TrEMBL record:
Any one GO CC term of the record: plasma membrane
Name this polypeptide is given: Transporter
Family under the similarity heading: Belongs to the AmiS/UreI family.
Upper lineage: Bacteria, Bacillati, Actinomycetota, Actinomycetes, Micrococcales
Mode of membrane association: Multi-pass membrane protein
Amino acid sequence: MSSVGLLYVGAVLCINGLMLLGLIPAKAAAAMNLFVGGMQVVFPTIILVQSGGDPAIILGASGLFLFGFTYLYVAWNALTGASGEGLGWFSLFVACCAVVYGILQFTTVHDPVFGMIWFSWAALWLLFFLLLALGKDSLDRWTGWFALFLGVATGAVPAFLLLTGAYRTGMTEGLIAGVILAVLFVVAAVLGRRSGTGPGSAPAAPAETPRATTV
């Protein structure tokens, strides 16, 4: 994924995480999902047209569509009020593909850090599937916190490292990244459980129900 595209993937993950946490109404988040979703469809299409059939370039561009279609789907649901089941099942497809892309990062691309990042995205999209398709509403705040954390940890941080030429990858860096992402997954679960219970806790959803619209 390009560094510029990755930066804005991080932004929209943060926005959608805040939406699930009840801090941003779904319609207020639709614009960012439209902008980033459109970018993640148009840019990889241009890359594919100019790839000259290079398998490495095609592989790199192909994963971007998963994000683009997801965010456009989110925007569609937010603006039309459609239910989230279709988006939830699509999220399962994305989660399965993300596992494959993660494996390919280790075996073909030789980038263990992004292998771990893809695995964390698979975990996030699996949560979206459970929340949206299967109606596991108790996961909404866990999913929101994890999306917010990944927006920073797998979007903004690696994007700026790539943009400044400071990005490094290898098995050691991949192991460190994996540990950090696993810790964020657990912390999100703990925060989601705590913030969803007790007197005075924040509402589970804004007026436009995130379960129907959010990824």
